[in-house]
Amino acid sequence: MATPKKCEIVLLRHAHSTANLKGVLAGRDNTVGLSPRGEAEAQQVAQVLAQGKFDAIYVSDLKRCKQTIAPLLKTTGARPVASKEILEMDYGTWSGKPLSKLSKMPLWADIQSRPSTVRFPSGESFAEMSLRANQAVLEMAKGKSRILVVSHGDVIKSIVAYHLGLPLDNFQRIAIDPASLTTISYSPSHLISLNNVEHLQRHSESPKSPKSAKSPKSNQRDIHSLGGGAGRV
């Protein structure tokens, strides 16, 4: 039997969005685009990605992901493949609501400690999201040497957890910042780099945070263990 071709999977989370700036859970709201900070991040990450080649580029079919990859496409002329399988999680009735309020809901504790048991009201479960995303990425990697996958915080965290062999209940321990790069070698699975943001400049925009949280400083990271958070602030 022939040995499967090894593929380098580069995972890019969309850049800082207007929802990150406002501190709301965007979900699949396709009106959410990049913030001014995110537009700068998209340019910065494009400079790094343009130095290499990809057999294929797959992008979540949402505005903020398309805007993140636009500078790279303009530079390289590459044509991405839109994929619904790597869309943001369907948060149902939680979509569009402030994270400061959501973090006080009874379901929040299970989201942090037992996400494998959680289904969002009128939405998707973490288990369903993880299954569709990981099945899609494994299929995307077949027969290719290097691919780029442009997606969302929780989706990328679930992919990393799968390749590390972590239970889904532990995936909230993984941080994936806006415009970060995570690289996995497959198969077999090896994590090469996680949440790489060395290409990004420091910034000053801060999202609204729960009242119980301290105001973030320039060397801190906004972490909401749902949706991925707004990254370094």
Strands of the biggest beta sheet: in what spatial order?
A: 3-2-4-1-5-6
Termini Cα gap:
50 Å
Q: In CATH, what is the class?
A: Alpha Beta
Mean pLDDT score: 90
For the secondary structure, the number of strands is: 8
What count of helical segments does DSSP give? 7
Q: What shape does the CA trace take?
A: globular
**Biggest sheet statistics:** 6 strands, mixed
Helix content: 25-40%
Architecture in CATH? 3-Layer(aba) Sandwich
Order of helices and strands: EHHEHEHHHEHEEEE
Q: How many independent structural domains?
A: 1
Strand percent estimate:
15-25%
The unreliable regions are: 204-219
Q: Under CATH, the topology is which?
A: Rossmann fold
Structural class estimated from helices and strands: alpha/beta
CATH superfamily: Phosphoglycerate mutase-like
Radius of gyration equals 17 Å
Summarize the structure.
This protein has 233 residues and is an alpha/beta fold.
Question: What can you see in these coordinates?
Answer:
The chain is of the alpha/beta class and 233 residues long. The chain has one domain: Phosphoglycerate mutase-like (Rossmann fold, 3-Layer(aba) Sandwich). It has seven helices and eight strands, in the order βααβαβαααβαββββ. Strands 3-2-4-1-5-6 form a six-stranded mixed β-sheet, with helices on both faces. The longest helix is centred in the middle third of the chain and has 16 residues, at 126-141. It is globular, with a radius of gyration of 17 Å. The protein starts with 6 loop residues before the first strand and ends with a strand. The model is unreliable at 204-219 (pLDDT under 50).
